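In this section we walk through a basic example: taking a raw amino acid sequence and producing a predicted 3D structure, encoded as discrete structure tokens. The instruction is simple. Fold the sequence below.
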Amino acid sequence: MDDDLSKLDLYKIIGVTITASDSEIKKAYRKKALSCHPDKNPDPKATKLFLQLSKALEVLTDKAARATYDNILKAKIQAELRGKESDSKSKKFKYDSEVRDKTFTRPWQASGEAFGGPWQSSGESFRPPWETSGKTFRPPWETSGKTFRPPWETSGKAFRPPWETSGKAFRPPWKTSGEAFGSPWAAAIDEALRKSREAMDEALRKVAEPDSEAPL
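The resulting token sequence is shown next.
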């Protein structure tokens, strides 16, 4: 089927509905063709309409071509309905949003003033205190005229850790407890080595002793 024909409403061109029979289609065609025949109507638009009528009659009186066209037309109608439904939902959503915006009044809208902080309502840009005072911000140790020094420097004494000031040498916990520091499995390894040495000593002792049951 010609792509141009699939874009046209052939039933509307002839003047019948989609359920019209072949005889109804031919009767409507003859009636409309008389008014736009080139021999009776020299208007270029009439000539174009007459050609469309001829093509529409050709398609709609052929069962296979009409069935194909009907499927295309129905799909097109459904697509248009879905489009209209989507547009309707979009318009409703927009309308509801506008209604909510008009109904719900925020505090700063009710007062008729734009919401802003104190520096905005005064018409001035926000500036921190050290800028409005005309002075450059300086930390306390600069304004006092003294150089910042940590406590151990101002006390006149060199900083020393606690184990130096107490007069005792620093020793980790495992040294002060009197026990050797080892991992949890160190004791198990030592025990296994001890048993292994005892077993070896026992074997050597038996080898060194004469066999008491040997014949004289």
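Looking at the output, two observations stand out. DSSP finds 13 helices and no strands in the chain. The mean pLDDT is 77. In the next section we compare this with other chains.
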